[in-house]
Amino acid sequence: MNILSIQSWVAYGHVGNASAMFPMQRLGHEVWGLHTVQFSNHTGYGAWRGEVFGAELIRELVGGLEDRNVLPRCDGVLSGYMGAAEIGDAILDTVGRVKAANAEAHYCCDPVIGDVGRGVFVRPGIPEFMRERAVPAADLITPNQFELDYLSGRSSSTLAGAIAACDAVHATGPRVIMVTSLHTEDTPDDSIDLMASGPDGRFRLRTPKLDISVNGAGDAIAALFFVHWKASHSTAEALSKAASSAYGLLARTAAAGSREILTIAAQDEFVTPSRLFTPEKI
């Protein structure tokens, strides 16, 4: 497949496109990367250098792809962190242009807004843009638990609540939802759940909780889920393969004591995960 991925880029480490592109490529897909920023390293270090690119640059680059007449061959658009609502407008404009050229293309939005314990960490206006514009335009979304609660206006602290929250967000547009870092009333303390909901059912997958805190894992699992779903149109299969690969990647990273995820060193996990987790239907 050919996937257009519009995200940030760092020279050192793996977040944004530097986390999302290689797993898709390792699985045999062409990835056309459009970078919204070029930074020396991710912002979790507290200091970085680089430049934020404007929305017009995205439109200009997409125009160049149109000049090459390749948009009809684009199978999907993936987006993640948006630094400003203007960037979001340019991404949604790109989605429209791609879908006009290829009616079979899909848009996967990782609605980066915040996280449990940290709250909202994006610029003012971005949460509202995600909820009111980006998510309704998406075919697939990959929120974490905090983002699901924000998008739905509900609490997902129970499994029934998480299902109801997904249903509320489905009603706004997205056909398929994968929720990461889910902890409900029956999630053991030493485990972490993921949930996926689509036209073919709802599924929960549980993995051991790893003692690790790194940036970029969400970017990788969103990309993996998107291409596995595109290849199979099976919500359960996409969840199983994406979660298993992400767990293997993080387990290798934790074992090495690395602050950056080992996207390159652990690349075999994208193709043949060391441990395959099977989701349960709920």
TrEMBL record:
InterPro entries: PM/HMP-P_kinase-1 (IPR013749), PyrdxlKinase (IPR004625), Ribokinase-like (IPR029056). It comes from the Bacteria. Keywords: ATP-binding, Kinase, Nucleotide-binding, Transferase. Gene3D superfamilies: 3.40.1190.20. Its EC number is 2.7.1.35. GO terms for molecular function: pyridoxal kinase activity. It is an enzyme of class 2 (transferase). Residues 86-255 form the Pyridoxamine kinase/Phosphomethylpyrimidine kinase domain. This is pyridoxal kinase. The lineage of its organism: Bacteria, Pseudomonadati, Pseudomonadota, Alphaproteobacteria, Hyphomicrobiales.
